[in-house]
Amino acid sequence: MRYDLVIFDNDGVLVDSESLSNTILAGYLTELGHPTSYEESIRDYMGSAMHRIQELVLERTGRRLPEDFDEVFHGRVFEAFERELLPVAGVTEVLEKLDADGVPYCVGSSGSHERISVGHRKTGLDRWFPAGRVFSAQDVGRGKPAPDLFLHAAREMGVAPERCAVVEDSPLGVQAAVAAGMDVYGFTAMTSAEKLTEAGSTVLFGQMAELPELLR
Questions:
Q1: Pair 154, 160: CB distance under 8 Å
Q2: pLDDT at residue 154 above 90?
Q3: 168, 55, 52: which is closest to 109 by C-alpha?
Q4: Are 10 and 129 in contact (CB under 8 A)?
Q5: Is residue 18 a contact partner of residue 169, using CB atoms and an 8 Å limit?
Q6: What's the confidence (pLDDT) of residue 183?
Q7: How many Cα atoms occupy the beta-carbon half-sphere of 107 within 13 Å?
């Protein structure tokens, strides 16, 4: 393969969590007096770190979310993960192929370390991603669409940004990867090809099984 590192987003790319978490987020925001549909949650918040959700709500409404917002939201999400979360179809085969080819990989996620850990444990992906391969927006000052997280992951893995490929499913993540100077592969399972292209992705795919050949 032509890359020295593949950086995977987590939610929607490794674990099939976007439908679950955005359903819960839309419901919780509505409960708090900020009416939000599932479609609006996907559009506005998919790929966001928690601080960005809070900032957007404050900017739009002039009202802060409760101090325990993150805690309550994650509690509900983790309960849903324990019941329903699955890995994205075909992703373990992709990881096996990367291992066979000797290509390092890691996670660069807007989610917290706890969220990543809970999801990986439930889906069995923890065997592929030990602590040294997991990077969260918690590790940097700014989350996506800033490039900080991906640059941090590359630095920690000892790889130059231009030698990295990023696998993303959100416009925010695509923007972050482009800003980091990395090639980005847009996964269209949850987001339209048009939106990912507008964000800067030049390579799109709809099934994980397609990815290994695209990375060559």
A1: yes
A2: yes
A3: 168
A4: no
A5: yes
A6: 97
A7: 32
Question: Would you call 202 helix, strand, or coil by DSSP?
Answer: coil
Report which residue type is found at 82: E
Angstrom distance (rounded) from CA 124 to CA 195 = 31
Q: What's the confidence (pLDDT) of residue 97?
A: 96
Q: What angle do CA 189, 147, 25 make, to 5 degrees?
A: 50
Angstrom distances, CA of residue 21 to CA of 3, 125, 140, 148: 31, 18, 23, 24
66 residue type, one letter: P
Residues 46 and 87: their CA atoms lie apart, in Å, by: 18
pLDDT on residue 47: 81
Contact 18, 115 (CB under 8 A): no
Tell me the per-residue pLDDT of 70-121, one tens digit each, with 9 for 90 and over: 999 999 999 999 999 999 999 999 999 999 999 999 999 999 999 999 999 9
Give residues with Cβ within 8 angstroms of 79, minimum separation 6. none
pLDDT of 1 higher than 80: no
Give pLDDT, residue 115: 94
At 16-32, the pLDDT tens digits run 998 999 999 999 999 99
In sequence order, what are the residues at sequence separation of 6 or more whose Cβ sits closer than 8 angstroms to the Cβ of residue 196? 168, 169, 171, 174, 186, 188, 204
Q: Which residues of 16-31 are buried (b: 16+ CB within 10 A; e: fewer)?
A: bbbebbbbbbbebbee
> CA distances (Å), 60 to each of 34, 35, 64, in order?
10, 12, 10
Q: Tell me, what DSSP letter sits at residue 165? A: E
101 token code pair: 């080819």
